[in-house]
Amino acid sequence: SPLVTKINKSFTAADSPQLLYAVSTNLCRFGSKAAFLKKIIFSLLLFFFGYLVLGQVAADLNIVQTDTALSVTSIEDRTFLFVDSVGPRPIEQVAAGEFVPLRSFMALGYVPARLLGKRFYTRFTLKNNSAATRHYFYYPGKLYRKLQLYKIDSAGLPHPLETRGLRDGFIPIEVRAGTTVTFLLKSVFFKTNLNALRSVLIAPGHLETFKNRMYRSLDERKVVGILLSGMLMMMILATLLNFFITGKIEFLHNSVYSVCMFLLIFLTSYLGGYPGWLRGFFLSYLDLLLLIGGTIFYLAFTRNFLNTKELHPGLNKFLYIEAWVLGILMAMYTVLHVGFDLYTYEIIFENVLKIMALAAGVVYIYLSLRQKNKLMNYLAIGAAVQVFFFIISLVLNLSEIGSNSIYRSPFFYFELGVVFSIIFFLLGLFYKNRQQLTSRIQEQEAMKLEAEKQHFANQLSIYKVQQEERNRISADMHDDLGAGMTSIRLYSELAKSKSGEHILPEIEKISASADELINKMNAIIWSMSSHNDTLGNMVAYIRSYCIEYFENTGIQPNIVIPEKIPALVVNGIIRRNVFLVVKEALQNVVKHANATQVNIILGKEPNGFSLVIHDNGKGIDFNNIRQFSHGLKNMKKRMNDVEIEFAVENDNGTRIRLFRKTR
């Protein structure tokens, strides 16, 4: 037994044939008579030889032969693990420590939360029997925050190697020809419950295939996420466009909220099973930061969009406090996440933060619905649907129900909540824009009406000034010119009476001219006076003139006037032109018609009034109108100027018709 122990310490299995021969030769020297002892010793030597050979085979089983690792090779059964759960130890001490098979740890199925902040060390040995250097990519699992690769020398000391692969999770390694190399990988996980330990060698030519199989396949959850991300991108562009057009800060706040939700949904869908650093950082911290940050900006958007500061002070104060509380809690979570290795407490803190956000959302919905404001109700209903789906997502997340079905995915219900909140926001935006458009139109109409009223007031002022001036002129004409013309007529009549039978024709002309001028001046004064601007006054004046004009002419006037004449305003211009046309028509009856009777009829028609002058004379000969006679032309022009229809026809005499529509 001491011999066997000494041999076991001094020799290796490679020396076993020579050892067996030397020992047997020396023992046989004791003599042939000791045959029995020889057999016993020989049996012991055979047993010892078998033990050495089996030990060598067991040692070889823990070495990965690169000849067999040509594509994708799982080496988890030949990989060993050491977890530094006490504290940061020197790497030399770790290398000499006691490692356990990786398979025994992987049987747990997950990395315990209490160990997520600790350092994990995995060790494996590769042997290259070929004549060429072998290159591989090593996949240690997911999701690692730090990775450092070491090479163990023959003395058992680790030497750091340049480690690439933290970004995508695949570490390049090489094994030179005819060498055996032991690698030691130091790693630290991200603080998330999706970590996993693996140990896989991948040949360079199969790396892309391995990646595609791992996280580039499109499943229904990724398709839904990408579609919703596209909707959010359109939302971002729409709100930014509204911000640049209107300059309203609420659209900028909504854009930031939409950007946060877009990144949250897009990164969740795009990263999928990605094992690199970005996915680990996203799942351990960035997703919560985007969720809480987006919520804070949504609260700011709500305050500005609803103008709660002026219209709903109580709700405004609640939203303001809620935003600050969420911001402070997120800052505390950041300190806990970065400064301490207390993942168990982080999970509790994160869930408490989400529950508080949901509770605040419920309070906001209650306060909003109490306001009975339609615009606020749109946002409140959207928030209610969002909270409902968030509760489903939180329950699924806390229960850790695992399934590939989209209907059991917590994030799917989170996405639905975001979509419904956006839909109701768009409905609210449409309602608000419609309200603003209606209000803007009403303001414009009010401004237009005010401008029209002002214009009418200005016109009325001008009209009053004009009427006052007309009244003054007519009064001056009546007082001054009328008195002067009357004096001329009296003096001419006095001269005629003193002349006896020899009346000078000049005096007769002066008297006739004075009479004519007095009549014309009276007509002008009548047309200029604003007191006469009515239809009844015009009809009475024309009737009086007709009766006086046909006196002593042998023509019988027949004037027909309605019993009730409407109180219509007829300004001086219309009255003067109508009177002059009537006067011209009566003169034509006296001078040219050879009539014995004339009918002057004022009639009310369905859409206006008409004035007809109809005599029983010889009628008008349109083919024999004197070349230099402008009576009819002037009459027609005067009526066109005041928008009155004028017509002349033969109807058992001459019939002149004036017609004006009433508005």
Structural overview:
It is a single chain. Helices cover 60% and strands 15% of the residues. The protein has 18 helices and 16 strands. The strands form three sheets. Strands 1, 3, 4, 5, 7, 8 and 10 form a seven-stranded mixed β-sheet that branches. Strand 12, helix 17 and strand 13 form a beta-alpha-beta unit. Helix 15 (505-528) runs antiparallel to helix 17 (572-593) and helix 16 (535-549) packs parallel to helix 17 (572-593). It is rod-shaped, with a radius of gyration of 57 Å. The termini are far apart. Mean pLDDT is 79; it is low at 1-34 and 51-59.
Distinctive features:
alpha+beta, 16 strands, 15% strand, disordered N terminus
Summarize the structure.
Helices cover 60% and strands 15% of the residues. The protein has helices at 2-10, 16-28, 35-61, 91-95, 102-106, 207-215, 220-246, 249-271, 277-305, 308-311, 313-339, 343-371, 374-399, 410-499, 505-528, 535-549, 572-593, 631-641; strands at residues 63-65, 72-74, 80-84, 100-101, 119-127, 134-142, 144-152, 158-160, 171-175, 180-189, 196-202, 556-560, 597-605, 608-615, 645-650, 654-661. A hairpin with a 5-residue loop joins β7 and β8.
Number of helices: 18
Described by strand count, sense and barrel closure, the largest sheet is: 7 strands, mixed
Strand content: 15-25%
Distance between the termini: 137 Å
Structural class: alpha+beta
Round the Cα radius of gyration to an integer and report it: 57 Å
The beta-strand count equals 16
Taken from the alpha-carbon principal axes, the silhouette is: rod-shaped
Low-pLDDT segments, ≥5 res: 1-34, 51-59
Q: Mean of the pLDDT scores?
A: 79
Helix share bin: 55-70%
